[in-house]
């Protein structure tokens, strides 16, 4: 078994001691597995915070993408892995990098209702009006793929407060407010209308 394979296994298990030993022994920190994942991305998948911390502080690339265009930074943002996300942001995360859908980390975070992740990404400076390959912004995804509940209401408020354009429509010309009304999300609709949504 190669040292890089062992490093991936240690990362998956969150075995901090093994990771330190392997790195000290010269294991290549950004080696890829069969899916193109680095050990850091494997640790991020498993929300192995201490393993991720050790790898990041040892110089692992937080922007290294796998075969499906996920990086530790993008995956942490999309999945609400807040502690790992903050580590990636402190160690050179590329805020303009995009996933296989052409979206920033903010867009799936908004869709999935990760309130603190959205707050963190906004504070880091991710473009709140970035449009992905589907023609959707974080605001549109929070509305059409969210559940209209309290978490998505908070995310819509955060995006609006951060300057998101409440009238930036999708490719069909449908605005966030029209989507909210179509879904009968009255609370989100009220937030958008108060922000000048049409």
UniProtKB/TrEMBL annotation:
Keywords: ANK repeat, Repeat. It holds the Pfam family Ank_2. PROSITE patterns: ANK_REP_REGION, ANK_REPEAT. It comes from the Bacteria. ANK repeats lie at residues 2-34, 35-67, 101-133, 134-171. This is Uncharacterized protein. It comes from Caulobacter mirabilis.
């Amino acid at each position: 078994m190669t040292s890089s394979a062992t490093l991936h296994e240690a990362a998956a298990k969150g075995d901090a001691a093994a990771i330190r030993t392997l790195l000290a022994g010269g294991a290549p920190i950004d080696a890829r597995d069969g899916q193109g994942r680095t050990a850091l991305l494997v640790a991020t998948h498993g929300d192995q915070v201490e393993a991720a911390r050790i790898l990041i502080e040892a110089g692992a690339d937080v922007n290294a993408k796998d075969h499906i265009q996920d990086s530790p930074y993008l995956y942490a943002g999309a999945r609400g892995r807040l502690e790992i996300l903050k580590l990636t942001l402190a160690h050179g995360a590329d805020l303009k990098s995009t996933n296989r859908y052409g979206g920033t980390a903010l867009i799936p975070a908004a869709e999935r209702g990760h309130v603190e992740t959205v707050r963190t990404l906004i504070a880091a400076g991710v473009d709140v009006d970035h449009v992905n390959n589907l023609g959707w912004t974080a605001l549109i995804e929070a509305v059409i793929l969210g559940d209209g509940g309290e978490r998505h209401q908070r995310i819509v408020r955060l995006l609006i407060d951060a300057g998101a354009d409440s009238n930036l429509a999708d490719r069909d010309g449908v605005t966030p407010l029209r989507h909210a009304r179509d879904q009968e999300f009255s609370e989100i609709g009220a937030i958008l209308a108060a922000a000048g949504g049409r």
